[in-house]
Amino acid sequence: MNNMTDTHQNEAPEVKAHFAWTPFYMAMADKLLAFRNRRKELMAGLHAIGSTAAGHLVVLNDRFSDGSTGPLQDICPFTTFALFNRGLSVENRQKVAEQLARLLGVTEPVPQSFDGVPLVINQNSWFFANSTLRTPGDLDILWEVFARALAYADLENEENRTAFARAYDNALTVRMVKWNLTFGLFWIRPLFYPTLDGASREYIEEKLHIPVVASSPKGCCSAGDYLAVRRSLFERFWESSSPVHSFPELSYAAWAPAESGTDRDTDNNEDGAASRQAAPADPEVKAQDPAPDHASQTESYSIDSIVSDGSFLTREKLAQILSRLRLKKNLILQGPPGTGKTWLARRLAYALMGTKDASRICAVQFHPNLSYEDFVRGWRPRSGSGLELVDGPFLQMAQKAQENPDRPHVVLIEEINRGTPAQIFGEMLTLLEADKREEGQALSLSYSRSDTERVYLPPNLYLIGTMNIADRSLALVDLALRRRFAFVTLEPVLDDLWQQWVQEQCAISADILAEIRKSLQEVNREIAEDPQLGPQFRLGHSFVTPPAGAQIADARAWFRDIVETEIVPLLNEYWYDAPQKAEEARSRLLQSFAS
Length: 595
Prior knowledge:
There is one protein chain. The chain has 23 helices and eleven strands. By secondary structure, the chain is of the alpha/beta class. The protein has a five-stranded parallel sheet. α2 (39-49) crosses α4 (90-104) and α21 packs antiparallel against α23.
């Protein structure tokens, strides 16, 4: 782009600290999630750590109603993280972190410094009360918000956002949980969630001029408040004039005035916060150079990562898709419902970037009411009176990509054919072409800021769209749009690879999976052969692929629930004029799964 706006002219400020701890923290969270339904095993491991030479650093005793004390029997994920995120020396934090990493199976190296990490005080490091004050279910509530937070960070869509918000508000009902919940969210996904300890709130309001609303009955942020602050911060980070450009930088900057190695109290003891290490006390650690590249602060990601996450495409096929994306710049994943289009789109973006950096991804969803003015640029009411010209998410992301030319940036478009793409993109449709991604091809916009403004799309901006080809309500995609995108069709995958992955990840027996596979393949065959339907209406594998590590006590009951609540409603829609066919298909799916 060229002269898009008069802002964003300055270079982004230099990163002030090396946040090499972030991959370790994210890996810890990923591994800890697997212990959600194995908490006895987790507690046994923690108590075993307590018996080692560093055992005095990990003592977990509960207080009972008769006044006695004894070993803690259960724990929440955030309190587990707090074991090495409290008022200890750097050396002792490393010792505890190393023991926990060994217990959980984390292979990322233990951090050498913890710059910008919020700490809880030793006397108030639990996120739940002792057994005399604890409410049954408190720990399950905290595990739920932990799991929902990871899911939302992994896949930023409306469904995951709603589930996370519900879990967040529910977590605020737990005694001992207040602002410290945001510390825990920051620990587990430091590039996705902000910490709102006292110093950070002050910095956000006074330095970034973003209000932190606290409408919860506890006097802290509700889920809606928290997500609104998070969104405002991300928007602020994109501005080159911003003093910080990530949540770790913000957290570090909020405590930068503290002297090296000293603690700084927060304004509210109920937060559980005591300090953070704005600069490490160890002079060798302090001498580390600043991180030269933001990608080094994030978890690396590749084609192998997609496979490990649960893709049933071969490495060769994934490499081919990525190659088409790099060459064409624009890609659409199309396929029947449940074939993992949304799931794969985000992971392709990560693999393209080489890192799990959500800040370089913008996700939008097209719908019939979406317009050029919403997506590209249009007039909006100004605060106070009048109108102002506002860039939509597409131009905002293009600007960000132009300011960081060495790093890929990706726009994810869900349900790209639910809107009217040619109208929504406008002149951007011409600029999308790979051979027009240069300044010499710049065009005037429908709503220009000046007579001389010209806009082009930088070559490091990529688009990945998804399209459900079974939706009867959608018109054919405009041929002009088709010419500018590479199309990849995803098929239902119910093969040995799928069966092996689900068996290993979710401990469902091979016999049950073979029955599920057989019954779905039979129904898919009938759907494909129906002249009123066809292969594009088949049922995808996502319907019967649980998340990695999901604990399914009764696999038969689980499959019956999937059929009755997700598949049958779809079949009724398919065969709305032949209900007997839908009922026959339902019977075939459930014939081996009677309760």
